[in-house]
Amino acid sequence: MRKYFLFVITCSIWPLTNILAAPGITPADSAEFYNWFNLDMQNDSIPGISTEKAYDQLLKNKNSTIVVVAVIDGGVDINHEDLKGKIWTNEDEIPGNGIDDDQNGFVDDVHGWNFLGGKNGENIEQEAYEVTRIYRKYKDVFGSSDTLNLKGKDLETFYLYKKARKIYYEKLNKALEDMALIQKFEAGYLRADSIIKSTLNKDTFSLEELKATGTSENMEFAMARMMIVNLNENGFKIETLNNFKKHVNTRLNYHFNLDFNPRTIVNDDPENPADSIYGNNDIIANTPEHGTFVSGIIAGNRNNNIGMQGIADNVKIMAIRAVPDGDERDKDIANAIKYAVNNGAHIINMSFGKDLSPQKELVDEAIRYARAHDVLLVHAAGNDGEDVDKNPRHPNSKTTNGELLSSHWICVGASAKSADLNFAGSFSNYGRKSVDLFAPGVNIYSLKPDNRYDVLDGTSFAAPMVAGTAALLKSYFPEFTATEIKDIILASAENYKKQKVTLPSKDEEKKKKKTRFGKLSSTGGLLNVYNAVEMCD
Fold it and tell me: Contact 113/321 with Cβ under 8 angstroms?
């Protein structure tokens, strides 16, 4: 028993370093991180993006025009108190009449469209990962075939299948290992909790009560006490463990489940690009948390004295639902981009990504379409702690034939609140060629559905920093094109090239490596609203 508890205490570091650091589920004190990303290094000693400084010193008494930002995500709570007046409305559509008034193919698309819904009102919530879908599709085709005779397109498909199979089993095994560790830790924690309650003869106890018990000759109680005190003093909460357990269960039950296929809800042919009119107008649906958080960063009302301060003050959010809990489909993303362009979006925020893209040519075509219509696309670099020059994430600005579509594309990594070794988010992807710049993405305060607020991590929340800045620039300087706005944002980035940082990684050995911030992106810089506005002026 003693050795068992010693093991549990030793592994108590595991949930603190892995669970608490997982992007999107980091617990934090909201007050500590409120509005920090809008602050200024010179004025506030915080490496924010200088939004407040820009409004106070450069944008007073200036006129602006409305800019539309499309948020392609998992849904948006358009009724949130801090997005009031900030939601795009299709003026050519009459709400609720069941008629496609503007004849764009989408019935009652008043505030956007949901490409993950069915005509009967059902919506996809979870989806399999792309590697799971590819592996499932081709495992019987290539499992026992003579691959030596494959040529042309068949050979390309085989290599896609082979890569998907490798990634599938690597990530599945990691999820299984995580679940085994969770279960082992949970068993030890509950055992310790039970011993303490039994010894104290209480159904509940406080940390202060436990500390006051002092030393004990009861070895079981002493070890249990040590574990619970140690965990609590390091900020552990059982809710955090439960959230991570739910997260891993979702991966095992849905993301890696070869038998799971929810696409029948939509009732389209996901392999057929011509089948492009599908979905419903439920843009809130059942997964609005992520998209609402993103939308708050871009457009949270700056003048209502509640909630938080978004970046752009004259902006409308067009909500497009195409990203499930799992991996998005290429066809949905291509159609979402085209919908945004066709309905007047100036900027598109894309806080999602995946390992493989079997229909990449569809997304490439949509990106070209956006470029032809002067629409800027902003994409999150991803949360794998990897060099995406070597391991590209999808979508990206490089086509299947090597063409670069980067003139109106910005890729964003995540930075933190302190300009020190931890300045680059430990989870953030990076790349001298593929990532353009960094923006705040660690401990960000923004909106949650049902008029709530939270603090979260992720490059998903660094991308809307740039999308919001682009919207602000387009709003006050409408004469600039998408390419010019991109050039200004990159040229005006605050220089942190020489800042020494820990190399982002999920590998414990790589985390020990140090590098220069300038080596993590093409600019080596941090987004800065003040500099960008000054450059426009």
Answer: yes
Helix axes 529-536, 463-476, angle to 10 degrees: 30
Give the burial class of 194: count Cβ atoms within 10 A of its Cβ; 0-12 exposed, 13-18 middle, 19 or more buried.
Answer: exposed
Residue 497: which residues within 8 A CB-CB, separation 6 or more? 516, 517, 518, 524, 525
Show the DSSP H helices in 12-100 as ranges.
13-14, 30-33, 41-44, 51-57
Percent of residues, the chain, with pLDDT higher than 90: 78
pLDDT, residue 3, reads 41
pLDDT in tens, 351-379: 999 999 999 999 999 999 999 999 999 99
What are the pLDDT digits (tens) for 500-515? Answer: 999 999 887 777 799 9
Domain boundaries, the chain: 2-14+134-252, 34-128+267-536
Q: Is residue 165 packed enough to be buried (19+ CB in 10 Å), middle (13-18) or exposed (0-12)?
A: middle
The DSSP element (H or E) to which 528 belongs, if any, is none
- Taking the whole predicted model, whether its pTM rises above 0.85 is answered as yes
Best CA proximity match to 389, nearest among 411, 368, 372, 405? 411
CATH of domain 34-128+267-536: 3.40.50.200
Half-sphere exposure of 504 (CA within 13 A, CB side): 31
Extended strands (E) in 112-194? 112-114
